[in-house]
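Subject: design request, 156 residues
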């Protein structure tokens, strides 16, 4: 690979997740985080630092998928990965920004649509499938039940 192609691939992999992380955090202020800490928490609640760790891993996984999409010149996977990134940040706004556990649960269910579409579209690229599958399992196995329970514990 040429140096300029390497830089384009790196930008395609790092740029969107970095922009999403910055934009998503811009919408969430200290008041929203204080509100979140005051909610009744489900038993399966992770400690706050673990959420940060999961977030970093998520951005690396999506960066890997975007990198592979760039190398494979796969615009469908790229488009779906960008939709997943945007959907994740919109979830932050709907849940934390609006301070609504109900929105958090509903948003998690809606988020499954683009996430599962992306998971299906990377099936022919083993590195992307390996990178994305743990996140998809996380969302289905943890985020859905966690957000449901959080909403039921905090219905208002």
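Subject: RE: design request

Done. Sequence follows.
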């Amino acid at each position: 690979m040429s140096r300029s192609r390497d830089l384009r691939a790196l930008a395609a992999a790092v740029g969107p997740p970095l922009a999403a992380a910055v934009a998503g955090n811009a919408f969430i202020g200290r008041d929203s985080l204080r509100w979140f800490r005051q909610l009744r928490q489900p038993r399966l609640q992770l400690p706050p630092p673990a959420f940060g760790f999961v977030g970093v891993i998520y951005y690396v996984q999506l960066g890997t998928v975007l990198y592979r999409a760039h190398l494979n010149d796969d615009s469908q996977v790229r488009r779906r990965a960008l939709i997943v990134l945007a959907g994740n940040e919109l979830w932050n706004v709907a849940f934390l920004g609006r301070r609504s556990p109900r929105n958090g649960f509903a948003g998690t269910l809606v988020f499954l649509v683009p996430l599962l579409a992306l998971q299906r579209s990377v099936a022919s690229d083993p590195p992307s499938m390996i990178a994305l599958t743990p996140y998809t399992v996380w969302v289905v196995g943890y985020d859905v039940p966690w957000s449901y329970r959080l909403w039921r514990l905090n219905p208002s």
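The chain has six helices and no strands.
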